[in-house]
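REQUEST FORM: STRUCTURE PREDICTION
Request ID: SP-0412
Submitted by: Lab K.M.
Chain count: 1
Length (residues): 237
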Amino acid sequence: MKLVFTLPGNWTGAWILLRLLEVVESPWRATELGFANLETGESAMLAMARAIPEVSRVFADGTDPARPPMDDDLIEQIAQHKAIVQVTGDLEADRPLQSLRTVLRATNAIVDGGALAVQCGNSGLVHSADAFQALMVAVEAAGDDEDALRRALFQVVVRFMLGDDGGIAGDEGRLPAMTLGMHTLGRPDVMLSEVLSADRAVGKLERIALGPVPASVPRDSRSLPEIVRNPYGLVQA
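STATUS: Completed
RESULT:
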């Protein structure tokens, strides 16, 4: 399974980004083995592409009730971006939190190099550059405490899908709230069986998502793109 993060910026070429990383004294460098941290040996993969005008819409749509929305000025800056960088890495089934943290550290290096914002492709959740780096402080502070690390990573990669009244508008009316992105933590996603107000739905989703994993979890049968579908199943509560 791949972890995917997309970052727009105003680089006019890959060499400018790599030079900026040297200027800010980042330990991350492009090597023959990929994008690697010369101090820790961690690595991910980088790809750069030309600007995609429509990408600002993706970022505008990627906020959710539990995270601050992006302001119009930032969305306009994203609309005027000059290049897109994608950071990817493998989600290791036997150490999902640690492998996710590695890819996030590589992503954070690109933010240091001037990225405007970050989108997690595995959930659609977006963050401004400042918000992402603030969340990474908590990720790093967690150290080897897996419970603390899971809680910190949850804020970075898991998206809440809610409607105005705590449900999602679908073809059959209002659907219960759900999470997207729990597979990046090696856990099932959660879908509520009842429609709750947004604040109660968020609280219940987070409590169940970060609690003990049930012994038996039904498979995730939602019609979702492969990058979002959860191989660990779907808890209905």
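NOTES: The chain is about 35% helix and 25% strand.
Reviewed by: T.R.
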